[in-house]
Amino acid sequence: MSTITLKDACKSWGSTQALTNINFKCENGKLLVLLGPSGCGKSTTLRLIAGLDTPTSGIVEIGGRDVSNLPPVKRNISMVFQNYALFPHLSVEENILFGLKARKVPKNEQKKRLENAADLLGLSNLLDRKPAQLSGGQRQRVALGRSIVAQVSVCLMDEPLSNLDAKLRQEMRQEIRALQQRLKMTMIYVTHDQVEAMTIADRIILMKDGVIEQHGTPEDLYNRPATAFTGSFIGNPPMNILTPDIEFMEEFSSMLPPGSTPSYLVGIRPENIVISKKSGLKSSVLAIEYLGADSLLQCQSGEQAITVTVKGKTEISKGDHLKLNWESKHIHLFDGKNGKRIIDSARGVTP
Amino acid sequence: MKTKFKLGYWNHVNGWLLVLPAVFMISLFTHFPIASNLFHSLFSMGTVTRPATFIGMENYVFLMDDDIFWKVLTNNLIYSMCTVPLSIAMALGMALLINRNIKGRSLVRMSFFTPTVLPMIAVANIWLFFYTPEYGLFDQVFSVFGGDSHNWLGNPDTALYCLIVMVIWKESGFFMVFYLAALQQLSPELKEAGLVEGSGKWYYFRRVTFPLLMPTTLFVTVNAVVNSFKLVDHLVIMTKGGPDNASSLLLYYIYENAFSFWDTSYAATLTVVLVLILAIITIFQFIVVEKRIHYQ
């Protein structure tokens, strides 16, 4: 079928190492998101799969076949580009049929596939237009149409929604997800937006500096971040990563593994912090952001910044002194040196 | 109501004042000479003793019967039909060739562009040497293969084509620069989309690259056509239009009439014809070709 596997894939340009030992498998019919900040190598990974770049070492397999050195056309894939890559001088219809004409698909088959795709994407009235006469969302649909008519089971998407406004982005991501499930496509989707990743992915690969930080389901990444970086990247607002200082240890030493004081990083999500009247980490409020359903309190304790989420509009005002508290089970513990998660069982907590 | 009228009035005055310098210059150097030229073409050749007199269309009637005019016009058409398409095709080919990552690319670019930066007189002299019988470059090369000596520029059958070869060599490097600039404007994402969609090199060129280069092609074509009607300097150095007007072109014939024969009124008549030809070709190119062009 169309399982995609990367085995020890590396890519470097001269002395710049873009990707180091990338290993993963995307099962047939699943949507895998490559997530990470800019320059982390997610687009390069996608280009290796597409065949627009070849790995310096390692293997790319699609459907069990080693395609590492095959040109894109022989890989049976379709791709949607960040800027859509529509041909500006061709009509919507010609853009969608471009690949089919290149591959000399019979005329009546072309027509059938075009009609199907146009129906599916609501483009039937726009077939004569040029890309310049379309809105961003419509252009996006044309790019999708081009990859649908190819009728291949692998679809690669390189930040397809980054040029759309927020509302449209939300609609389109639902549409893409629905389409992917309906057509049972194996899809690899590159984005830097963690919300987009969380909402549509079957599995997420979070990357940083050319290596995979964590590969798992959205729940895994949110509930059990493998590194402090994952913790701070996933979730909105991001997880607070605190270095336990003396004040912190006074209140919370019981929550940390007993008998040792190595350098830890403590991760705690803003939504898990409660404001306590009795005890807790002393901090002062620097700023309040009202979001409607929630308010974000930007607090400071000693040298460290802490974000706290509270429901609705809050009575607290700037400059107030608060005691922040949380339950032991909400703490994520990371190694202070390499940022790796310290397994829950090692600290005697069951998740 | 009154103030509104006033405002509109001053807007117009303002506008005219702003374009006045440009209008003045373009009238002085373009419109006035054309009108004056048309006017002079209706007069006889003036001399010191006999001033020019109005003779109506007589110059034009003479032109219709002038065998040299028809000869020169035919030459010019052959010359245009050869130099325009060939130099453009070569320019495009060279631009496509050096728009890739090949070794020694800047060296190749430089050598393609060199003919353009050389002074025209120098170029003509270099080619004069190439075409020289016996010890010229071409004859020396041919003699290696046992060929005879040719008087390339002295033979009425080859003189015009010798000019054509040289001009193609010179023009294509210049036009290449425009194509190269246009090619570098094309998004690499389009190329990649083409690769993923399975288009071959030729298919991609035919469906995407060439259509997207059409604005450049139009610009280059208009220039090439105009250039093909205004060649003088090489002719002066190489053949002086000879032998027997075999390599003479329209503008050179005008130049001869005006400054060798001092028949300025007939030269004016020929100029009117030249301007008409150029205007018709350019209007045709813009109106017909424009419709098929996609501008970004």
Key descriptive features of the protein:
A: 351 residues, alpha+beta, 6-stranded mixed β-sheet, 26% helix, elongated, B: 296 residues, 13 helices, 74% helix, 0% strand
Write a structural description.
The complex is a heterodimer of chains A (351) and B (296). Chain A has helices spanning 42-50, 92-102, 107-121, 136-149, 166-182, 194-200, 218-223, 228-233, 246-252, and strands at residues 4-13, 16-26, 31-35, 57-62, 65-66, 77-80, 154-158, 186-191, 203-208, 211-216, 240-242, 264-268, 274-276, 281-290, 294-301, 304-311, 321-325, 332-335. With 351 residues, chain A is α+β, with helices and mostly antiparallel strands. Chain A is built from 9 helices and 18 strands. The model of chain B has no long low-confidence stretch (mean pLDDT 85). In chain B, helix 7 (159-185) runs antiparallel to helix 10 (214-228). Chain B is flat and about 75 Å long. Chain B has 296 residues and is an all-alpha fold. Chains A and B meet through strand 6 and helix 2 of A and helix 8 and helix 9 of B.
